[in-house]
Amino acid sequence: MTARGAGFTLVELMVTLVVAAILLAVGVPSFRELIQNNRLATATNEVVATLHLARSEAVKGNARVTVCKSANGTSCVTSGNWSQGWLVFTDPNSNAAYDSGTETLLRVQGKISGDVSVTGDGSLADYVSYVGSGQSKLTDGALQSGIILICDARGDKAARAVLGSGVGHIRLGNDSNGDGIVEDASGTNLSCP
């Protein structure tokens, strides 16, 4: 009997490499989807946490607190979408614009990372503002409600929605009819830009 050397044969090495390649081919797409889902969840959580902060500060201080889009972290903008970042600040003059020196800046959110798009519709396109009662109101005093849609390159099927109501409640949109697309409260499909 001859003793076999402690090593791999060429066939064993090839089989191991083929198995590893198969596992990698199956695992990489799943891992990429996991990363995309985590980016969407993070962006959604940032939006929700910001709105909760603004509402609680408005109620606590019995004063208007506004969240606005901001490209530079120092002023509000009306162009672009929420993905570029936002500011949370006290807004005693109810103009939905941060006035440095006279208003208190509560939080600055920088650009959302990755290919995530955050877009507000209707009255939530540029700002969200809460008054001391906890209601969300426009600068003219009308109740403010709408949807902030969070999307990535996968489009509508992966979208998430933050639904804001005039009474100040914030809730997440869901896929109520099982078609894989998020709907608003009336059942209308929400579409990513």
Task: Please describe what this structure looks like.
The chain is an alpha+beta fold and 193 residues long. It has a domain of 108 residues: minor pseudopilin epsh fold, CATH 3.55.40. Helix content is 27%, strand content 19%. The strands form 2 sheets. A 4-stranded antiparallel sheet has the order 3-2-1-5, covered by helices on one side. Strands 4-6-7-8 form a 4-stranded antiparallel sheet, with helices on one face. The protein is elongated, with a radius of gyration of 24 Å.
Give a short summary of the structure.
27% of the residues lie in helices and 19% in strands.
Jot down its keywords.
193 residues, alpha+beta, minor pseudopilin epsh fold, 4-stranded antiparallel beta sheet, 27% helix
Q: Which helices and strands, and how do they pair?
A:
Elements: H1 10-61, E1 65-69, E2 86-90, E3 105-109, E4 117-120, E5 127-130, E6 146-151, E7 160-164, E8 170-172
Antiparallel strand pairs: 1-2, 1-5, 2-3, 4-6, 6-7, 7-8
Head-to-tail CA distance between termini: 73 Å
Indicate the multimeric state. single chain
Based on CA atoms alone, the radius of gyration comes out at 24 Å
CATH topology term of one domain:
minor pseudopilin epsh fold
Helical segment tally? 1
Rounded mean pLDDT score: 87
Identify low-pLDDT runs.
none
Using the alpha-carbon principal axes, give the shape: elongated
**Lateral strand order in the biggest sheet:** 3-2-1-5
How are helices and strands ordered from N to C? HEEEEEEEE
Q: Based on DSSP secondary structure assignment, what is the total number of beta strands?
A: 8
| CATH structural architecture of one domain | 3-Layer(bab) Sandwich
Counting helices, strands and paired strands, the structural category is alpha+beta
